[in-house]
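Fig. S4 source data, part A: sequence.
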Amino acid sequence: MLPWLLTTLMARAQTPPAINGLKGDYYEGINFEKYVLTRRDATIDFNWGHEPPAPGLPAEDFSVRWTGWLVPPTSGEYTFHVTVDDGIRLWLNDKLLLDEWRGQPVSSYTATVTLRAGEPYRLRVDYCQYRLDTRVFVNWALPSTVPSSWRNLWGMTTDKPKPVPISSAYLSLNNPKLVAKRETPSPPAPAPKPLTVNKPQPVPQPPSRKPAAVAPVPQTPRPIAKATPAAAPLPVAKPLPSPPPVLADSGRTASARLATLAVGEAMTLPDLYFAQGQARLLPESRLALDGLAATLHAQPTLRFEVQGHTDNVGNAELNRQLSQQRADAVCLYLTAHGVATGQLRPVGYGGTQPVADNADPAQRPRNRRVVLRRL
């Protein structure tokens, strides 16, 4: 027990704690046109006035995307209070709670949801700044701790909780449950017991006897078998013809098909390549994505759900996160090349929608794909 305890304490001492706060990606342009920088923000509580929010950014005409995990301290009904100038969108577990994406004076909005204590929720907030004042506050009102009864007319006379900034203690860059799972070492397996080898006991041998003389048996000559003619050699099978190569312009062909898709129909994007286990697009993907961006820019009425899919190997939640990040990467590339943000909606499905047998290693790569479904 003592060695395992020492191993656990050493592992926890060497593993850094989960980083609180949110990841903020900052862009020039009101629709994430040009990426500038990424930093950690403790919470969303900013009033930049007429100053740039960060070095390298203008004081106007910029956008920010905050992502991370929200862990409520108690169970109950929470009310998000948002004050913004200009546009804002807020998602919780991929559910859109607020959508006020436009230029506007200082405005306030609320959204109410029921949350469970200690349960991590995916949080995403998009913000855009047009002109003049620059401010965005995302606060919340915690559930009331006063029980409803006849004494307070079943809660009607009870003072409602006031909105407060969301503390960084309840925000995390990564899923706290997965971080805790990776940080907890497994106890070592018990050492095998040494085997006890029993020495073999000598077996008593019977007294030896001389073999009796045996009369020779006369041998009868056997007939000589006739030689069988050798069988004819089997014909050699001709190799099957190899499949035709993929055309280099398959990405452009796919782009031309976008306008012909009916609402609800989907198409897998060809020639998309990511770094293994990552959401980083490889340079080979640019040709297909450039053609796709040109098509969408020329037809601004087209709207698509950009779906990320993986196989089912490994942790299901990590696969879902990777598929979401790859869908986001495709959308960011397209919006950086002239496609309006409103034309795209990135969604990660992980390994929940396979198109091939994951048990077959030869078919499994078909499940790792990016799909466009027309909206």
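Fig. S4 source data, part B ends here. The chain has a mean pLDDT of 79.
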